[in-house]
Amino acid sequence: MQDVQFDGQIASSKPDIDPEDTESEWKIFRRLMYLNHKRSSLQQVFSTLLTSSTTKTTFPNLAKLVAILIVLPVTTATVE
Q1: Residue 38: phi, psi to the nearest 5?
Q2: CA 39 to CA 54: how far, in whole Å?
Q3: Structural domain tally of the chain?
Q4: Distance of alpha carbon 76 from alpha carbon 80, whole angstroms
Q5: Is residue 45 part of a domain?
Q6: For each of the chain's 80 residues, which pLDDT tens digit applies?
Q7: Which residues pair with residue 12 across a beta bridge?
Q8: What's the whole-model pTM score?
């Protein structure tokens, strides 16, 4: 839980993406992808993570991060 202050009020909020869980998911996911999909592109790996219901259930935090990556415009990195 995190304390969040808004309009002078303090409330507790659970983060949508848990950092520790995400790190654990990433370590397992990375190993699985290395063993099963060595020659796959990142696009194929992301697609697997988003479309496979088993993968989305097993790695919910990673699935959320991939969904965010897909909707963020890449060109914002080049804005001066």
Answers
A1: -55, -35
A2: 21
A3: 1
A4: 9
A5: yes
A6: 667 777 888 877 777 888 899 999 999 988 887 887 778 887 787 777 677 778 778 889 988 888 888 787 766 556 55
A7: 3
A8: 0.63
